[in-house]
């Protein structure tokens, strides 16, 4: 009897897409997507910490249908999920950013476009999704101003400033692979020539780390964020917060939301799992801004865990890149449909008619 081939069967969990992606990606690209920084302690901690969150379900609540709808930054979405900002999506599939943004639009959720996207922002916004633009702070403030003008002109719904990348975390897998971008993948939102270093790797060197060091401003301060708040009339999201004191400071300078995130374990190795810090951040801001969770989300159960701990929603990263790699836009659409089905099941089993009800659930440490 011939065993069925996994890739010929429908995915039944988001992690199914990982092995499918691994079979179609080159080793260096797989490592780039999969890796964390240093010893990858924080990368693995994200998953362990989420698995330790036990949700106490409620019974006999009369829930027979679930409405996944949620409001993020004052706008209605089909579920409390956004596509995390991820660089160079054309690395994994020709559909790239356009495919993943189209999938997000079909799912009714926001798509976060990266400064380091491999498709120009203006093309991404034309696919019809609600696009939030993720900003890396560039050394040249004039370029920051130019990006802000493009963000407004393109019709983006929010600005998301990533604050946890003063320099790129040291990623041994990329160093061993001497990882560099192929010629057809460029930093399409940066001026001509800004990404030259990203294509010029060598033994023991990450071309992306060199490019980041050349392009990004490492000495970003809260005063810079306050300046930014005054430059743009869009909801402002601060991504990369772990310490509750930083969340409070973000609110002080005008943030409408913060994303509790350790960058998927790709920045400071040894930092705590994002979900570990989520309750403290939620308590610290006290309802003054929305709190989202990023890093390690792999299922509808994980979304429920985040909601029960006080998050307004989550950002999903690697699983959607896996799905994009495995099946292009269609794969990403299927993955988001699967996530919606998982979240529906999780909320139903927990006795919640909608995501807001999950905030009333108790959680326990099951570790």
UniProtKB/TrEMBL annotation:
InterPro entries: Aldolase_TIM, Alpha-hydoxy_acid_DH_FMN, FMN-dep_DH, FMN_HAD, FMN_hydac_DH_AS
Family annotation (Gene3D superfamilies): Aldolase class I
Annotated GO MF terms: FMN binding; oxidoreductase activity, acting on CH-OH group of donors
Cofactor: FMN
E.C. numbers: 1.1.3.46
Residues annotated as the enzyme's active site: 263
Binding residue positions for glyoxylate: 32, 136, 171, 263, 266
Residue numbers binding FMN: 85-87, 114, 134, 162, 239, 261, 294-298, 317-318
Keywords from the UniProt entry: Flavoprotein, FMN, Oxidoreductase
Residue span(s) of domain FMN hydroxy acid dehydrogenase: 6-367
Family assignment from sequence similarity: Belongs to the FMN-dependent alpha-hydroxy acid dehydrogenase family.
Protein name: 4-hydroxymandelate oxidase
């Amino acid at each position: 009897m011939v065993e069925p081939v996994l890739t010929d069967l429908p995915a039944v969990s988001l992690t199914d897409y990982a092995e499918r992606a691994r079979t179609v990606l080159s080793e260096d690209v797989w490592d780039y997507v999969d890796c964390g920084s240093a010893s990858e302690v924080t990368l693995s901690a994200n998953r362990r910490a989420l698995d330790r969150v036990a949700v106490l379900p409620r019974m006999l609540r009369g829930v027979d249908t679930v409405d996944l709808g949620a409001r993020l930054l004052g706008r209605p979405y089909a579920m409390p999920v956004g596509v995390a900002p991820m660089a160079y999506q054309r690395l994994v599939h020709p559909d790239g950013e356009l495919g993943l943004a189209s999938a997000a639009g079909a799912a009714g959720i926001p798509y976060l476009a990266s400064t380091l996207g491999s498709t120009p922002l203006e093309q991404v916004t034309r696919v019809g999704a609600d696009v939030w633009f993720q900003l890396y702070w560039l050394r040249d403030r004039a370029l920051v101003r130019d990006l802000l003008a493009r963000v407004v002109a393109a019709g983006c719904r929010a600005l998301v400033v990533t604050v946890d990348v003063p320099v790129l975390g040291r990623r041994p897998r990329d160093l061993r692979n001497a990882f560099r971008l192929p010629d057809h993948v460029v930093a399409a939102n940066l001026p001509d020539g800004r990404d030259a270093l990203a294509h010029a790797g060598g033994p023991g060197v990450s071309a992306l780390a060199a490019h980041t060091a050349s392009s990004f401003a490492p000495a970003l301060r809260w005063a810079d964020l306050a300046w930014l708040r005054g430059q743009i009339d869009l909801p402002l999201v601060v991504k990369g917060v772990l310490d509750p004191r930083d969340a409070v400071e973000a609110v002080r300078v005008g943030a409408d939301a913060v994303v509790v995130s350790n960058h998927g374990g790709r920045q400071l190795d040894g930092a705590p799992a994002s979900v570990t810090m989520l309750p403290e951040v939620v308590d610290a801001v006290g309802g003054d801004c929305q709190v989202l969770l990023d890093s390690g989300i792999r299922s509808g159960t994980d979304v429920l865990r985040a909601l029960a701990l006080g998050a307004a929603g989550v950002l999903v990263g690697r699983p959607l890149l896996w799905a994009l790699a495995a099946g292009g836009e269609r794969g990403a659409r299927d993955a988001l449909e699967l996530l919606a089905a998982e979240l529906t099941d999780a909320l139903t089993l927990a006795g919640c008619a909608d995501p807001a009800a999950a905030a009333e659930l108790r959680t326990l440490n099951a570790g």
